[in-house]
Specification:
It is globular, with a radius of gyration of 13 Å. The two termini are 24 Å apart. The chain is built from three helices and three strands, in the order ααβββα. The protein has one domain. The chain has a three-stranded antiparallel sheet with strand order 1-2-3, with helices on one face. The longest helix is centred in the N-terminal third of the chain and has 11 residues. With 67 residues, it is of the alpha+beta class. β2 and β3 form a beta hairpin.
């Protein structure tokens, strides 16, 4: 499930994580930016302090959850 929508806030993080998996040359600032994120079964999660993993949602998914 690659994130195709260029306006989705998760796209940059997703792309950086995929590049890290392929061991491309990554800047230290990018590593720091993605250090708290992980991809599991094609879903993006953020590591939380009090909760093990927090699922990252798109705008549409967030509206659905709030409703």
């Amino acid at each position: 499930m690659a994130i195709e929508d260029p306006t989705d806030w998760r796209k940059d993080i997703w792309d950086l994580l995929k590049r890290q998996e392929e061991e491309d040359d990554i800047r230290p600032t990018d590593v720091r930016r993605t250090s708290r994120f992980i991809i599991i079964r094609d879903e993006l999660y953020k590591r939380g302090f009090t909760v093990p993993l927090l699922k990252c949602l798109s705008k549409d998914e967030t509206s659905y959850v709030i409703d």
